[in-house]
Design goal:
The structure is a homohexamer. Helix content of chain A is about 40%, strand content about 20%. By secondary structure, the first copy, chain A, is an alpha/beta fold. The first copy, chain A, is elongated, with a radius of gyration of 24 Å. The interface of B and C includes residues 208, 209, 210, 235 and 243 of B.
Amino acid sequence: MRVLPDDLLEYYIGPASDVYFQRAARTLEASGLDPVVTVEYFCDREGVLCGMNDVLEVLGRALGEGDEVWALPEGSPMAAREVVMRVRACYSRFGRLETAVLGMLASCSGWATAAREVVDAAAGTRVISYGARHVHPLVGPIMEYSATVGGCAGCATPLGAQLAGLPAPSGTMPHAMILIFGDTVEAALAFDRHMPEDVLRIVLVDTFKDEAEESLRVAAAMGERLRGVRLDTPWERGRVTIELVKEVRVRLDQAGHGQVGIFVSGGLSADRIREFVAADAPVDSYGVGMAISAAAPIGFTADIKEVDGMPRTKRGRLPGVALAPRLQRIR
Amino acid sequence: MRVLPDDLLEYYIGPASDVYFQRAARTLEASGLDPVVTVEYFCDREGVLCGMNDVLEVLGRALGEGDEVWALPEGSPMAAREVVMRVRACYSRFGRLETAVLGMLASCSGWATAAREVVDAAAGTRVISYGARHVHPLVGPIMEYSATVGGCAGCATPLGAQLAGLPAPSGTMPHAMILIFGDTVEAALAFDRHMPEDVLRIVLVDTFKDEAEESLRVAAAMGERLRGVRLDTPWERGRVTIELVKEVRVRLDQAGHGQVGIFVSGGLSADRIREFVAADAPVDSYGVGMAISAAAPIGFTADIKEVDGMPRTKRGRLPGVALAPRLQRIR
Amino acid sequence: MRVLPDDLLEYYIGPASDVYFQRAARTLEASGLDPVVTVEYFCDREGVLCGMNDVLEVLGRALGEGDEVWALPEGSPMAAREVVMRVRACYSRFGRLETAVLGMLASCSGWATAAREVVDAAAGTRVISYGARHVHPLVGPIMEYSATVGGCAGCATPLGAQLAGLPAPSGTMPHAMILIFGDTVEAALAFDRHMPEDVLRIVLVDTFKDEAEESLRVAAAMGERLRGVRLDTPWERGRVTIELVKEVRVRLDQAGHGQVGIFVSGGLSADRIREFVAADAPVDSYGVGMAISAAAPIGFTADIKEVDGMPRTKRGRLPGVALAPRLQRIR
Amino acid sequence: MRVLPDDLLEYYIGPASDVYFQRAARTLEASGLDPVVTVEYFCDREGVLCGMNDVLEVLGRALGEGDEVWALPEGSPMAAREVVMRVRACYSRFGRLETAVLGMLASCSGWATAAREVVDAAAGTRVISYGARHVHPLVGPIMEYSATVGGCAGCATPLGAQLAGLPAPSGTMPHAMILIFGDTVEAALAFDRHMPEDVLRIVLVDTFKDEAEESLRVAAAMGERLRGVRLDTPWERGRVTIELVKEVRVRLDQAGHGQVGIFVSGGLSADRIREFVAADAPVDSYGVGMAISAAAPIGFTADIKEVDGMPRTKRGRLPGVALAPRLQRIR
Amino acid sequence: MRVLPDDLLEYYIGPASDVYFQRAARTLEASGLDPVVTVEYFCDREGVLCGMNDVLEVLGRALGEGDEVWALPEGSPMAAREVVMRVRACYSRFGRLETAVLGMLASCSGWATAAREVVDAAAGTRVISYGARHVHPLVGPIMEYSATVGGCAGCATPLGAQLAGLPAPSGTMPHAMILIFGDTVEAALAFDRHMPEDVLRIVLVDTFKDEAEESLRVAAAMGERLRGVRLDTPWERGRVTIELVKEVRVRLDQAGHGQVGIFVSGGLSADRIREFVAADAPVDSYGVGMAISAAAPIGFTADIKEVDGMPRTKRGRLPGVALAPRLQRIR
Amino acid sequence: MRVLPDDLLEYYIGPASDVYFQRAARTLEASGLDPVVTVEYFCDREGVLCGMNDVLEVLGRALGEGDEVWALPEGSPMAAREVVMRVRACYSRFGRLETAVLGMLASCSGWATAAREVVDAAAGTRVISYGARHVHPLVGPIMEYSATVGGCAGCATPLGAQLAGLPAPSGTMPHAMILIFGDTVEAALAFDRHMPEDVLRIVLVDTFKDEAEESLRVAAAMGERLRGVRLDTPWERGRVTIELVKEVRVRLDQAGHGQVGIFVSGGLSADRIREFVAADAPVDSYGVGMAISAAAPIGFTADIKEVDGMPRTKRGRLPGVALAPRLQRIR
């Protein structure tokens, strides 16, 4: 993704572009029209801008000498209807990229904005995005990258971590592994035996037994090698409650395992995390899925505001360039 | 997408897969464990199943002789928590595909389900999905394919149309083209002059003038070659209202242009379409964006239900194979 | 109305008075009873007092020497259940006027109170009352007078303006006139040609074309003689929006017509005006109809509180004169 | 009102008419324009049409030979946005009457519609409108007439009764009379002594004592000459309750005064009357004020639909004559 | 309670009676007044009548020859404001019992009515009332008796069971016992060893371990002697969910313990039980506490309706005996 | 109640105790288990602690040498889930008392908490609890005692007053007495004649006549001996309104009876009292029934937290003794 192959540009302006841009291009060309236009891109609600780096890379390939681009930096907060990018160039150079440009910004900003709300709710406790499983795998790692732009401290796929510039992806162990072993303690010991040292020993403790009981068994078996337990109680058992976290904390401490952290996951939303925070639940890390990965995209719109230097736009929009002092000149 | 390259399978089980599946795989292999497991996949809410064709193609590459798969067909309605697929195979063969399999089903079923609601609201009038601009371009055409599985009659990108098996993508003309021409009638005549005959002459009529006035101007200029007008009034002008559609219809008819259809777009949701239908608004086709493209994914879960033929699952789930008579044996 | 003819007093105590006051009068007279009574008049909810001037004129004709009247001045704010007038006189002199006195205060105070809310919402921008068309023509001008008591800067009928002490009524031009001309510019030029100079040239611009386009056409045709445009977009086109006002302002300014004001009308309420104000919409004047003219009357009640100087009243009310220091002695 | 003096027509087209109609008239005349126009009048919500008789009388004076009028009859139910009148004539003949025509229909239809709802709620029990005191005395009797068009069986002023074609206005006795007498029984006996026989003996029983006690005292004193008691308990004592009506009925019956009816008044609305009806409260007549007299007017609009026989109207409306088969040809 | 000691009557008319009844008694006696009065007792809302048996026993002791009593039977449904008892006797015989009589009916009918709602919700599954711990122990068993009048199949205290005519109280085992043993299986085996055979072996399974795991351990240890398991999951663990019941059922069945019933308790309300029933949760018995024991009392009122045979009552009530055909003559 | 008979202890641990405590006792005894346990008691919502004095008296009889008890004092405010008592003793000494202990705290704290809310609402005006008639007479006086713990200034039964340490119960006169006399003034004079001087002369004034009229009659008849009037208007007459209180106050004052207080009763809740207070209604005392007597109990729970000095508790609770610095050592 970071290193954009030529054929991806072709893909964006061809098979992945709304067909009417191609028809417009052909009509304009046949009519001998290719004015310099100024196009402004704005969002339809407030949020965190994301996807701009990829957009600028794509545009960089498409535009030519003398063309101008202004933009807000990746990760900027943006107000509703704020202009986030302005391009001044011959229309033929970038007109057909509109679908791709808007789509990148829409998806990525939607994810980053949702992540920001969750991260703010967590009030300093680390949030890991693990929702790749809820989006198509072609964009799963991009969703994770966007979540880190919104403030997440980690994500689950190798490519996501690479895009986000993280040293490694985050992960504990799946229920499947424990089910195949048939016992949490056995699975935990095998995991500890075979994983490289840089993999954190965080054991999932809700597969077979009550979480508090299992936490104590695992801690007794692994001793100081245990770094944490993950509580992922299914909704059929009432999900992870604030009281469960507090009880596991007290029981671990009473048994001398104060070093074992508590990682919570399972249906967490910003609202639920706020409840945990308000109740001083002793959580070391939140794993968040749908609350980020299922975020609605943020709609972006591209409007021609000038044609050959003269203000012109469609009904309902203000002709001429908007006042947008936060934009930075890119080229 | 239909023709899956080998490296895409590698991508799915490697960089795009949650890292803990790889760690589980390594731990199990080092421990000499690779039982035959039965895994069931179910959705967390009701909807239209989509993405299954791609899933089965991916699994087809990964599984081996003797492995068994049951599934519901693409496009099936599914109840909340219904099992949509069952795989019985050695865990090592498909364990690491979980992220990709769930993600395909989640995104595609979310879009197809939203499309179904919109299409049902339209009560027989054609619905075109044009929301590729709201999702990352890597999945824009897949979103459009999913929308057609949910009942949409057309979509906007060439690849979307190809995936959906449609003869051609749908599209009218962008505001940008009309703005560059500077006059809707001129733009329409140029479009008519240069487009192949199989492209429908549907003219966007809200760029410069009141829609009713512009519709009559365009119809007068193009005569019988005009197939339709598109109303896409911006929200700054109150969006397309039921009354506008009726007025444009009456005025076109009074001027003898009964053959000109009316295509409506702009912020349409299932609720708004239901209002149009309830008021007998004379719409020939609806263009729908965010109401489909911004649909939340439907969460899917994969549960081990048997290990080496014995019922085993995690707390909260019922061990053993579920009763799922609608599943069809795939292999 | 200001100069009360004798027969209007006869009308008020006869055909327009609740018949039971005449029956009471006859019974009391036949019984030889005509004590001095003290009657207090109070409102059932807070608002702006209006109609008192007319009430005092009517009472002035009916009362005689030695009779006493206290009242709040026209336009006073009044609290819920506050006493607004007190009369001490022989009952026979004013008993039959109760229907008329209460009715004048009820209607006029209702309108003035609604106007006050609208005017407060406008936060300094002029409000014109043009709702005469929503009330019976016998009281249309009285409604307009009341609206100015509540703070409106102008009204639409000649008699309304006269009652309110305004130099002239306010008005632009009706859709009918433009429709008969068949073109807004033609109509505007004719209006300009034939109207005296003291009539403001404010042109209605939503009859045939989009308001922004029509505004520019009219401004180009009339130049500096154009004082303003009136936006009255029908609800079928989404009513006048904040964005429309801003766009028309920008386009007029870009074309060098900064002197042309914007007059907004059409279904305006205090709530909608507050939205315009909050969004800094560049409105020069609001035309308000139903939000003032359809105001519910404020109920007034007249209670005997003393009979021949002794406290006496009906169940539920406090006998004796109320503490009402804001009342002013009228006679 | 019924017999329209010439100067009232002058009043309607002059001082009571929105000034811009006069300006339009002058401009059109100076421009030599006076086409035959077709104007349609429609309401903005459903209700009972009222005021049409007066409108037709006014128009009758204004129009000339060859002019055409269609209308719905006085008292017709009308649907939202239904055309209630159509006039085809030279514009100069009736253009300036628009304010008056719309105002008559607006006020009168608002009152008639509210009355209809109250009367329907009463489910056959008589409803008397006594709200003249809540509207300006110039229109009090017109409000009462409108209430009878909506179904009321009586009203309180002599002129109201005359307009409604009733033999006499309805009324009992005011609190003032009883307060001056100082005792309800004394007042009742004096009333009985001095009123003509055709005035019903209905005595107000809540002035000094508990209503049940006073009812029995009055019935004992007047015997068979007592026709009814009026319960008008003030809100400070909890208003008239269903239980009070039942208790007074039982006590009167137990004391042998089965012939004495119960008349209820005081803050009655359609909702409260529905509660009385649902509880089988033994009420003989309801007196209703604000629920009718404070009704909001129903907005009416007049639209030119044809000019010189050609369809023409403003944006948002359908040009040409509407399908309105319920209209009756008046001239 | 069933066998009323003489001093309890003294208690009811003395220290437990509102003092003003004693003062009234003394005043009336000193004034030589002791008429025969007819008093009617009615409820202020609908429900199930309870406490009447005790009331009639108390009255039986107080009344004398010739006194008359009519009443509805214990357990009758009663409508809002329905007369449930009528006493005709000299006032001195029962006047001071009013506090006690109303209090018995109020508390008991409140409990019985709440129980009826819960029992109806359970749709045929047994409901046990175990809420004695939420009410003062002097009335705990009376609450339980009332719950059985409302339809409960069992209750927890010996006296409650005796009052209700049940062969034995219901109960499983408290958490305290298991905590002292330190292991659920050990506790269960000890219980089984030492309890008489007529005590059902129902074991509480949520003290130490996950309920499903513990159920299987207990069933394995006790075999066919195990009659049931009780799920009482604390709210800190999400309470008992429908899914937990289903999973425990499936796991017990898969392990061959189909004879083991499932008893659910913990914060159950009629609403929650309706959800269990709607979801076909395989529950054998519900234990309900607060939803019955915390029920608000139903207010009862006693009104004199006749004095010495003549209708007389206070303002607001209908004098004379009410029509109450469902009352049965008691004496 | 204060002086606990031995057999009441027997009643509490036998017939009034949940049977499973007896079964647990027998099982533990047969198994030779009787450890020292630490049990903590906590409430499920915030409120005013009441019943603790009785609980400590009961426990005092049951416990033996060396046993320890900590508790909050009677009347303490308590937070949700706060520990209000801790007992450390051999389980056999107090295990079977759990039902009684929890029940006393639950009922009494519920009533005291509701009383506190009402008393706070009255903002300094005296509140009398007269709701004994809404609870079973075995606990009526205990309810009244609890109400005084919550702040009530008086109660209605002799035993209630004795438990609360008040010099005498409060009471005026019942409607029944006035009905038997047939006239309020006669009843009041007889009451005055025959009651000891220390009984306040407060006369109920709503039985036969309007309250204002009757107040004046009674005041005229009794002169300075009249201490107060009680307004208890039935809901059929609209209950006591703020306006009624004000009117009665004004009329009494105008007639020179400024010393006569006003006592209000009838369906009063904390909300209604707040309205009276906000409106400065001149009330001297409020009589409150259901708002206190029908209060829901506050649930209390007893948890074993240590067994033989070691932390042990059930799932969901924190093992070991809670931090509860407000507890006071009782023994």
